[in-house]
Design a protein that fits this description.
Elements: E1 11-13, H1 15-24, H2 26-46, E2 51-59, H3 82-92, H4 95-105, H5 124-127, H6 139-150, E3 151-155, E4 161-168, H7 171-228, H8 240-275, H9 283-286, H10 289-308, H11 317-405, E5 416-420, H12 433-459, E6 463-465, H13 483-488, H14 495-501, H15 513-529, H16 535-546, H17 550-559, E7 564-568, H18 573-588, E8 593-597, H19 603-608, H20 617-622, E9 632-633, E10 640-642, H21 649-653, H22 659-669, E11 672-676, E12 694-699, H23 705-717, E13 723-726
Parallel strand pairs: 7-11, 7-12, 8-10, 8-11, 12-13
Antiparallel strand pairs: 1-6, 2-4, 2-5, 3-4, 9-10
Helix pairs in contact: 1-12, 2-12, 4-6, 4-7, 7-11, 8-11, 10-11, 15-23, 17-18
């Protein structure tokens, strides 16, 4: 950690170093993982397997309906709500039920249920007093305690089903115990119902006998009171006096109607006689048989008079005799009419007399009825008492008959039934060998990796300065060292990046760019003119020059996970060609890379795609193509390219503000976005370097050292300190030219 914490600098975690450390110790980690897996396999194989059986009960009302119709819910039926289901689940875990199951299956003889009694070695926790001695408990209590640890009873969510789970080392016992618990639970529930019905019947027997006597006494009081007060009943609702009052009222109404009718008829006859009208117009007169015979005789005489007047004169005695007879008959008719009138008057008078008699009787009955009404008040009170006693007796009799009919065991089923019986399990539920081995292996592997990572972090080997990129103080010659010694020491791969870090220091510590270039030139000249240059100096020079190859720049970009790199090619198409080779180098290492052709000559486009007129960056900036249509694969590698495009570059530059959004989107999709700008001016690069993570690569193949130093100085003066120099296109192991280049 030299050079990192010594100056109290901020540090970053070097993920590459962390991964490398884990990879270096992969043998130890994998060995520990294999050992842990083997131990887990052996341990789980030696464990005694445990089996689990499950029985399920459905809680429901099972009261038998003996009426044959839809019976309403009875008052003693259970309320099947969540509280009742939970209560039944707790009842299944009751001590009485567990004791009965343990006795029926004789669980005390099994070591599994009483390990303390059959253990030969004492428990160390008991010896030191940290645990109660289980032998101080009763054997039955020890069995119950072990039974509860293996038992699991729970209500299935959103249902009326209760599950009974039991684990045991014996698969047959794991199925028998929950089934037996369900049977005992149903027997207890059914027995509780039988006890309820039996107690109800025993309590109702004396109550029914007592109520029967009370009903008899109440009904006798009603009968005695009725006979003593003359309150005889003709119907269920009417008494004798009331019936008489109704009959007399009906007769009085009829008599009054007859009187009115007789008076009207008499008045009609009287009015007709006073007015001199013919009697044959009156219905009462015409209806008389005497009047009818007289009318017939009158008609005969008139006929004879008419016949005789044709042959005899008016004074003839025969005519006079016939007229005399006619006058006599008419006098009889008038006399008979008066008799009819008198009979009608007599009839009206009889009706008036009958009416007066009925009114007298009615008044007497009214007085008797009023007296009877007062006496019926006491009668109704006695009847209500008798009715209440009778209804209570009928209710008790119905309950007694129902309770007596359910005294048999099959007539009172429990309010639950078994819907799923436990079967003997074929596979143990614990231990699961394969999952346990996998979990232990993964845990050991992850724990081993964490140990390596933590050790690397605490040792400082996985930390690097946040402001300087990969400066290794051990590889830089110490101050005051001789030039030959420095030349003989192995230089770092990225010597140019170490020199560029010098431009990021504060202004007071920064030397003049011109002076730095002059000193560099002086050192280069001194080293080139030295007659005592050894083979070690040549090897150092080779190492120095190898830091500017395509491979070294690609290694740097990959190691530091640089998301965006801007390539500047002052030499034109030769530098663009080196940038294309850099993109292909990175793609061959398995990274995803896309090259954006921002050059004026479109040299990268011509090298990487067959049709240079494909949609590209200018079309994107003009908004004439879709984002996905502008990305094309390289014809010789796995790299991708966004070509130059076919749109007008001048019009595309008006939409250059979109370029930063395009680069950000590409950085999210690719490991590296490489932007080739060609021989761009330094002032125009500011639009592309808004992303603080962007690196600037100077692609200067064939440039002299002085030219490279001048370019570095110019970029430094413009504020770009972190520069990558790609001065050679050959790999680090390729033959080197005879002349040495440096910067």
């Amino acid at each position: 950690m030299s050079g990192v914490n010594g100056g109290n600098q901020d540090v970053d975690i070097d993920l590459g170093r962390v991964i490398s450390a884990v990879w270096e110790r992969k043998g130890r980690i994998l060995g520990a993982t294999v050992v842990a897996a083997a131990l887990a396999l052996v341990g789980t194989s030696l464990m005694k397997p445990s089996y689990k059986g499950e029985t399920r009960l459905l809680i429901e009302s099972r009261s038998p309906n003996l009426s044959g119709g839809d019976a309403a819910a009875q008052a003693n039926d259970p309320l099947l709500d969540s509280l009742n289901i939970t209560s039944q689940a707790q009842l299944l875990q009751s001590t009485d039920l567990i004791k009965r199951v343990a006795r029926d299956l004789n669980l005390a003889r099994l070591k599994e249920f009483d390990p303390a009694a059959q253990s030969f070695l004492p428990d160390p926790l008991v010896l030191i007093g940290l645990k109660q001695d289980p032998m101080s408990l009763d054997p039955e209590d020890r069995v119950i305690q072990e039974f509860r640890e293996k038992l699991d009873v729970y209500a299935v969510e959103n249902s009326r089903v209760i599950a009974i789970e039991f684990s045991s080392r014996d698969p047959k016992l794991a199925a028998d115990i929950p089934n037996r618990m369900a049977e005992v639970y149903l027997q207890l529930q059914s027995g509780a119902k039988l006890d309820t019905h039996s107690e109800t019947a025993k309590w109702l027997e004396p109550e029914i006998a007592n109520l029967t006597q009370k009903v008899k006494e109440a009904e006798k009081k009603v009968a005695d009171y009725r006979s003593s007060n003359g309150l005889f009943q003709t119907t269920e609702t009417n008494s004798f006096s009331t019936q008489q009052l109704n009959d007399i009222s009906t007769e009085l109404a009829r008599i009054r109607g007859e009187r009115a009718n007789a008076e009207a008829r008499a008045e009609n006859v009287r009015t007709a006689l006073k007015a001199g009208r013919a009697s044959d117009t009156l219905s009462d007169v015409v209806g008389s048989q005497v009047i009818q015979r007289l009318k017939e005789a009158e008609a005969n005489l008139q006929a004879q008079i008419s016949d005789s007047s044709t042959s005899l004169l008016e004074g003839h005695p025969r005519l006079k005799g016939l007229r005399g007879q006619l006058s006599g008959i008419r006098l009889q008719i008038e006399s008979e009419t008066k008799k009819i009138l008198a009979s009608l008057d007599n009839e009206a008078e009889m009706s008036r007399i009958r009416e007066r008699q009925l009114m007298g009787q009615l008044n007497g009955l009214k007085a008797d009825s009023a007296k009877a009404g007062e006496e019926e008040v006491g009668l109704r009170a006695l009847e209500r008492e008798a009715t209440a006693q009778r209804q209570l007796l009928e209710t008790y009799l119905a309950r007694y008959r129902e309770a007596s009919s359910r005294l048999e065991g099959n007539s009172s089923p429990a309010d639950a039934r078994v819907v799923s019986k436990a079967v003997e399990p074929s596979e143990p539920y614990f231990p699961k060998i394969i999952p346990i081995v996998i979990v232990v292996s993964l845990a050991t592997f992850i724990f081993g990796c964490l140990i390596v990572i933590v050790s690397e972090l605490f040792s400082g080997r996985a930390l690097r300065p946040s402001s300087v990129r990969e400066i290794d103080d051990e590889t830089v010659p110490a101050a005051g060292a001789s030039a030959p010694a420095a030349a003989a020491a192995p230089l770092p791969v990225h010597q140019m990046q170490a020199e560029a870090a010098r431009f990021d220091r504060p202004e007071p510590a920064r030397e003049s760019a011109k002076n730095a270039a002059a000193l560099a030139y002086a050192k280069i000249a001194e080293q080139s003119l030295s007659e005592k240059e050894s083979e070690a100096e040549e090897a150092a020079a080779e190492a120095d020059d190898s830091g500017f190859t395509i491979g070294s720049v690609a290694h740097y970009l990959q190691r530091h996970d640089v998301p965006v790199a801007i390539a500047i090619s002052p030499g034109g198409d030769a530098g663009s060609t080196a940038t294309v080779m850099l993109a292909r180098e990175i793609a061959e290492s398995g990274r995803t890379v896309v090259l954006v052709d921002m050059t004026g000559s479109a040299a990268p486009t011509q090298m990487m795609v067959e049709n240079p007129k494909m949609p590209g960056i200018t079309d994107l900036l003009c908004g004439e193509t879709a984002f996905g249509d502008a990305i094309h694969p390289d014809r010789l590698s796995d790299a991708h390219i966004i070509p130059h495009g076919a749109s007008d570059p001048a019009r595309a530059m008006r939409g250059v503000d979109r370029l930063s959004m395009i680069i950000d989107a590409l950085a999210d999709a690719y490991d590296l976005v490489l932007i080739e700008c060609g021989p761009a001016e330094i002032a125009g690069i500011s639009r592309l370097t808004r992303n603080a993570m962007a690196e600037i690569v100077l692609s200067v193949p064939g440039f002299k050292d002085e030219e490279v130093a001048e370019l570095v100085t110019d970029f430094e003066a413009a504020g770009y300190g972190n520069l990558l120099v790609m001065a050679q296109t050959a790999d680090r192991h390729s033959p080197r030219p005879g002349k040495r280049r440096a910067a």
